[in-house]
Design a protein that fits this description.
The chain is α/β, with parallel strands linked by helices. It has one domain. Helix content is 34%, strand content 20%. The protein is built from four helices and four strands; from the N terminus they run E-E-H-H-H-E-H-E. A four-stranded parallel beta sheet has the order 2-3-1-4, with helices on one face. Helix 3 crosses helix 4. The N and C termini lie far apart (42 Å).
């Protein structure tokens, strides 16, 4: 099995990292940032993970993303496959989805490296 790098990031903190697959969560999935009780929390907190994973379509997107990465890793060219999940600030949706994708890839036998570029940055007010 191939090595997979999974990166979460926030578009408001800069350009997406170089990746083979980029998943943009901004437009199609509700941002926990809009909820006062979740705004200052991150994907390290269970209520944020529950809110993100409870959003219709997110679990299907996680499965589909893991399937795409698994297919790419099965190709004849050796090398690391990088998937980047991005949301607005990189604190809620992206790291939650990145962790879930990584979990599925690990279960499928891949060596996985996870990096959260913007998880610990301050809340972006917009």
């Amino acid at each position: 099995m191939a090595t997979v790098e999974v990166v979460s990031f926030g578009f408001l903190h800069g350009a997406p990292p170089a990746a083979d697959v980029v998943v943009d969560l901004r437009q199609h999935f509700r941002d926990p940032h809009v909820s006062r009780e979740l705004r200052e929390l991150t994907a390290n907190d269970a209520p944020v993970r529950a809110a993100v994973l409870g959003t219709p379509g997110v679990r299907q997107l996680v499965e589909a993303t893991a399937a795409v990465v698994d297919a790419m890793a099965s190709g004849p060219s050796a090398g690391i496959v990088t998937v980047a999940a991005g949301c607005a600030g990189g604190r809620h949706r992206a790291p939650t989805v990145a962790r879930e994708v990584a979990s599925r890839l690990i279960a499928a036998g891949h060596a996985v490296i996870v990096h959260h570029r913007d998880l610990d940055k301050p809340v972006v007010w917009r």
